[in-house]
Queue: 2 jobs
Job 1
Amino acid sequence: MNRFAALLDRLAYEPRRNAKIALVEAYLRSEPDPDRGYGLAALTGGLVFHHAKPGLIRALIAERVDPVLFAMSYDYVGDLSETVSLLWPTPEATPNEPPPGLAEVVLALRSAGKVDIPRLLARWLDLLDETGRFALLKLITGALRIGVSSRLAKTAVARLGGREPDEVEEVWHGLEPPYRALFDWIEGRGPRPEAVDPAPFRPPMLAHALEERDAAENDPALFRAEWKWDGIRVQAAAGTMADGRRVQRLFSRSGEDLSGAFPDLLERLTFDGAIDGELLVMIDGRVQPFATLQQRLNRKTVTPKLLAEMPAAIRAYDLLAEGGEDIRALPFDDRRTRLEAFVAAIGDPLIDLSPMIPFETWEDLAAARSDPSAHGAGADAEAVEGVMIKRAAAPYVPGRVKGEWFKWKRDPYNVDAVLMYAQRGHGKRSSFYSDYTFGVWKPNGETRELVPVGKAYFGFTDEELKEIDRFVRNNTVNRFGPVREVVHTAEQGLVIEVAFEGLNRSTRHKSGVAMRFPRVARLRWDKKPADADEIAVLLAMLPEA
Amino acid sequence: MTGPIAPIHSANIGLAAVYRQADALSYWSMRAEDLLSLDAAGLYCAAGGFHIDPVRPVARAVVTHGHSDHARSGHRAVLATPETIAIMATRYGEDFTVARQSAEYGETVRIGEVDVTLYPAGHVLGSAQILLEWRGLRVVVSGDYKRQADPTAAAFVPVRCHAFVTEATFALPVFRHPPVRGEIAKLLDSHALFPDRTHIVGAYALGKAQRVIALIREAGYDAPILIHGGLDRLCRLYAERGVDLGPLEAVAGRAKADLAGRIVLCPPSATQDLWARRFADPVTAFASGWMRVRARARQKGAELPLVISDHSDWDDLCDTILETGAEEVWVTHGQEDALVHWCGTQGIRAKPLNLIGYGDEEEGEGVAAGGAAG
């Protein structure tokens, strides 16, 4: 456990991707089996402990620390595991046994009954130092958050044997911790693990943001365009195992399995192949706002009512495999032709085709982007957040390849608002006031009052964060637990230019509107609160009811 | 240590003497509020006609220590230890005040109706707690203080009092500063592991930098240590005051090859400056109590966080409050709420002062801080 803890500690402070890969690689080289396999599983999110919930950790610390001091500490540190690892009291007598190993912890947690876990955990916490306690708690709550993606860990595995990360990716889904077969293959002691999985995750191809010179330098005839939908990028993969069993999976862009949240969609994956597309909620053939989709994402359990009211759909834009054949090496145009036939053969209104946007010049495309409804998006125009531009001859290559795919987003909306409340952030922003509630003016008889219209958590630079934090601390007029009310009169206060992607009516907000994806665009120290916008500006941006 | 009232160590005999001297009768009619109040410049003692660590220019200031958020220029008169006076003159120029008076630790100075005595606070060179005695009431204003050993500052002396005005920079039980030796070992271990990489240590210009240098020396490293220009004058001042920092050399004017493998100290903000680009593949360390919390350490871009603080950690704050025997505690700046709550659990009356303007230079919360020093 200590070596794994030391690895996590170093990874947490190492900003360089290559250095992170080197650290993970060195760990995998030096750590014996099976511990390194469990370490790899932890880094790739492959360990789940159902009985070790945050509530259990809270209960353990509550027996040892004053609840008020715990609450204040947690508010400050912003992370439960770290708070507990720092607060955990050193036992009166140091137990005479070594700290537990990683495999020991994993196996003990798997075999232990629910009632035994608190005792086990408390004993380990007594045996470990602060770094070890932190690693243990992070491990069992399944939230390492050390800036190591599953992809990065697999890259380190590949390097053990001089292989490509995609080779590891493609055998990955058939494997289980502690991954002995994988290490045997990579280190040249065994055969390649059979890709027994007919529906593996294939790393998606990603786009660069379009810059002016990209358009200037490229011939539009060599490119195709389609709408950029405001949903969630998914990969729907399905196939049949050798023994006849069906496998159907829905992956996020990063390879997380989303199947559990979308059982309705899963049973529609009757094909044999892999579709790259956008997950949307569609009612009567019409795409619903992102907020609706979000309601489905945030549910732990999916009720029949939810499934009926918010049916999930896939709008397909690429085909990666068909009938066991990997077609990623084909040019986009060829894949598109196969995709059109493939989707037609499925014949399901909830798995439809993302249409192409015809254009001859970049100006044509700019016109489509600024007015999607008049250029083919029709009733779904509100769910369009820009256009995607893809090279006709490009094969499907994992990752962000230069010059092949571009995204060209619509300009975000902007409003000048006044900071009203600030709350301390969590994670990286902990101890800084980094969650901001802002408002705009609303006429009230002869006078005007500020009404909150949203909250923003990001968009600012580290330097701006410090400026706002200092402003909040020096201009607090009221405190409500972790929340501070800051001065916001016509003359005194901080004006923030807020950018957002869209606006909806809301009955939950006093202002009657809810912003989508609001963030701090700029601090307007040059403006007084009196110069901030009025609610009418926002109401004018609302889509027609 | 001389003075009308000896500082109390552990002997209870000393305590009894203190209480005989204190006029118990008049104490019962007096409260700390009668002696100290708050105005726009900070803590004000009406009976003496002076402020303590005022944040605006005032007629008469008593200054606990030389950090720029406590020691500001422009007062008409300043009373402080000789070291603090020297630090202020170094940072602001000789004309930082109209009149100045230095008082040694333990020496009592009468101002108006109040006897003022300075005791070591252990925070930085010259740092003092201020004991105010008036009509039998004893109030100690601690300024910033620490209990950990520090080769560059006189050790903190607990002083019995009725009311104790304490800082609270690290007043949360998550802050437990580890022994500094282990933290210095982390630096020297990394230096041994990467002998060709420059190790840049961000440390506050006044106090922390000199303490880190002295600790590195204690650990047996005697090669020249390179320092940023912003540390130069204060390091000289420490050396003149008898603090041995070993050979120090300037970073400026050196070729890249000559910087490889060196240990370099600089103000924290310099690690993000163009200044830091002269080093090839450096390891960036920070010496601060905030390094205990990961999010804070990452925010600063630390690759090698060293938990070294010149403030008291949670346990030392609590122990010190108990040692002073204070019945009332005022909490000045930092995490006031937690310390006030803890005092309540101990039956000690406590209140936050919500002072504004402190913690701006040094380890103050939420501020990147740094080289205000020259």
Note: Residues 332-346 of chain A form the longest helix (15 residues).
Job 2
Amino acid sequence: MSAIHARFKVNYPGFSLDVDLDLPGRGVTALFGESGSGKTTCLRAIAGLERTANTYLSVNGAVWQDDARGILLPAYRRPVGYVFQEVSLFEHLNVRRNLDYGVKRVPAAERRVSLAQVVDLLGIAHLLDRKPGTLSGGECQRVSIARALAVSPAVLLMDEPLAALDAKRKGEIIPYLERLHDELEIPVIYVSHSLEEVARLADFLVLLEEGRIVASGQAVDMMTRLDQTLAHGDSASALIIATVTSHDAGYHLTCVDFPGGALMLPYHPLQIGQRVRVRIQARDVSLTLEKQTGTSILNILPATVLALSDDSPGQVIVALDAGGARMLARVTRKSVAALELIPGKAVYAQIKSVAILG
Amino acid sequence: MTDESDLAAILLTLKLATVTTVVLLLIATPIAWWLARTRSWLKAPVGAVVALPIVLPPTVLGFYLLVTMGPHGTVGQFTQAMGIGLLPFTFAGLVVGSVLYSFPFVVQPLQNAFEAIGERPLEAAATLRASPLDRFFSVALPMARPAYLTATVLGFAHTMGEFGVVLMIGGNIPYKTRVISVQIFDHVEALEYAHAHWLAAGMLLFSFLVLLTMYTLNPTGRRR
């Protein structure tokens, strides 16, 4: 089911963009790539802020732009919400009037999101009477997100909303983005060059490189595709969607289940039954042929080798299947030879550390 | 002391400055907006033309206005054809001259303010369903409010102080086109120094108070 179909072409000296996007109409889609890869241009073109040649764009069946037929919906007629990378609040208006700005321009019949709801969702009730100039960067971005959501957009477009913030402020905002993902039905297109953000938020992932789409697919699959750069290097990791099953207060641990087995993680105050994203870095996974006993490693899962791919000269990335979930292990070439690792081989994956994302 | 003709000159000057300022704000706003946002090659030539009155001797401006608005000039023939008659030596002619003369003092602060606002707030407004006109009135205009105060004060005060242009196209007709600066000149020529002092000192005080008000209400460096 693809709800957003877009074709954009741009040719400036030194920059070209030629993409054909098919994006899902739900969840968070990340446009991921280096700066200059064209991801922001795509986002701006969807909003109508950037003119691109030979463009076709339809959202939920409505054609917003079709240059072949001379159809062009100007930016202000497109039902989008847009969050800019840098602060874009109106400085002459207080927070409440910033939020109202968009709402009062949307016909009452098209308002599906209530102002009270977004104010609550982003935790900004105490800021309503303040001027933007008195807010911190993180607060400004929360107000910007609320303002964009308050117009009941058909799609929420976010251009690296966390890039201008330091790590601490980022950490403050991500939970709000996760709530938004869980509580609202509005599809989000999220531009980012941070693997960390993408791993935490994205359901669907589009990889852009120099104005071209390199690959696209479900985030959990994309992270572990050996033909993609994401599955290589120091940050290579697998995403696993798991369910919280229990807490071990004595040892300060949280237990989660996923199709490939059970994992024990450092304690997180989560509800039993809650779905969580777990990130397992390839460099934290080692492989053995027999199940080890007498080891300090808590998480050992049976898995099957799916494929191998060279990483750095001495190292190999191994893609594993653990009960249908995909994982990555980074091992030395010497170990591959010693263990005779080939696709189809049964192994045990020893996971040294597992991170819960949100 | 001041006599009746001094009072008439003062009233005429205030009226001229007021009308000129209103006309200026209306004309300068779209031109400043265009100058601030265009990428056209015309930006530089238009900007230069707008700034001309800063460097030109007012007599040059006045001379050409007199020629073009006169009976053989293009503007003169047009105004005659329209049934308005000729503009030189009338109040309307003074307004036209003053508007041109004070133009850069109103356009430039507005242009600077519109440039400082940048694209981002306007793009944000567009994604919040504001049409281009709506964006101008709801975002650009309020954000440029301090610049409007500056432009109004400068336009008004500068018109109050003009001499060369009004002398050229207004002549020196008492009660009709004789403004304060011309009146002062007449007093000095007639060696009525006491009269000249009253008006001159009044202008000095007025100009100082106007600028003081502007700098108090609109301190530079307040923008973050």
Note: The longest helix of chain A spans residues 167-183.
